[in-house]
Known about the structure:
The complex is a heterodimer. By secondary structure, chain A is mainly alpha-helical.
Amino acid sequence: MHHAYIDRLSLMNSPVHRLDPRTKLVCTGLFCMLVVSWPQARLGWIALCLLPLGAAVVISRLPLPYLLKRCVMLSPLAATVAVFFPFTHASGQVLASVGPLNLYADGLLLAGGILARFLLTVLAATVLACSTPFASLLKAMATLRVPRLFIMVLAFLYRYLFVLVDEADRMRRARDSRTPRPGGLGRFMAARGMLGMLFIRAFDRSDRIYSAMLARGFDGNVQTMQQLSFGRADAAAAAAFAVYLCGVVAVLRM
Amino acid sequence: MHMPDVLVSPAVALPGLAASGALLAWSCRKAAREMDDRRIPLMGVLGAFVFAAQMINLPLVVLPGVSWHLVGAVLMAAMLGPYAAFIVMAAILTIQALLLGDGGLLALGCNIFNMGAVSCFLGYAVYSAATSWLGGARGRAAGIVLASAVSLTAASLAAVIQIHLSGKSPVSLASAAWLMGSVHALCGIGEGVLSVAVLAFVAKARPASVQERSPAERAAMRKFALAGLAVSLVIGGFVSYWASSLPDGLEHAGEVLRWPFVEEAEESASFMSSVMTGLLTTAIAFAVSLVLAAVMSRARQAVPERS
């Protein structure tokens, strides 16, 4: 895995990709807020949320199957919680009963609502991630007053994440090819050695990085060429989203 | 344990974001004051290390089929101090949320609070209490195991409480707390043992990376431990306040063991028994981890140094 692989979608060119990352960040946050606070009684209307999301997916020309696959991969916790609701939320009609378990209609609706909201929020976050290079997101966060130290740690973490994940992967492959049937303690000792070695390599690497930074004239600040600009397209997108939000709230109030 | 957006209502998510943001700003100021630039790449690369380390899964011996991995918060706190460790953990969680969609954007505040703040600060408080009490390698081992068990359990309980406050918990607070708390106490002990082993490995290969603390530092740590224990008492009080609105803790635990998802909330809550529930879980984790730490440090002393 390489960061170019994760970033390959975010380096595409489309009107959505060209938007100011701050616009996208704020709109995505507001959208998630809208989805999460959607009233359970109006669950059918949640399809309205597909409007801006669908528009973003279509305009950005991101591959929908890939986006959906990523969302499904992330669902274990939400799915686990949702599975319990039809049996434990004891209200409404009993649809079926298996032994001591009753399947409740209201609980089923609740579970459906959770899954729908989950997909919408995760899809929105995925579209944001796939249409914005991480460096631009960092720049946006810096202008939104996120502490400088935190931004720099994020930047280094992102840069070396793939390097160390690759290293861990190679170690894991080496272990698997040498220990076809690992026992409990053997497995533990192998993990100890792998993690220790990984730690030492990371530690040594950070020393080399620091020397390289000094050699390039690091003075406590990271300089980048990129400038953010809030242009006409951003104003239009933000205005459209604001109109949409007002419309949805008006519909919900009816 | 990364909570997605749906499990946290805005009324819980927004205070969570505010709390984590404030803690982060404070930690950045604290950390920037007491460190040199050399630690900036170190923090980033160690964050990447934790990220990669989380890929190495281990089977949970007690529950076959369930695997666990290192969380790394206590290991980071022991290596870098609580503030830098919190920044590193917050960075990891931010990347997981922004880049991989693991954990929601709104829930990010709560996730950083649980897996960053609780794990690093509470964990460090327990760790420094144990090291200032025992001292030396044995104290460090005991401290890490204890800190991992306590902080992981506390983090999972915090998540359970947040989901419950959001009204998104399918089972009663007591059964969710018992399930999550006991599983994470076990994982925490495993995490602690593994962290001690890794730290011992690193200390042998790169003694410079694991520094002994000066008396002044140990005094500072003791102060930190006292403050941390005071904070955890407050949190404990808060938890038992919530627990006091639950059905009888021990009785309920019996039900949980037979059938985990009984849905009956009898309002026969006795305050003492619900407090007992919390104390019992913590005490079991404490006892087991103390014994383990003692056995481990004795075993390490008995084996003559190889190399």
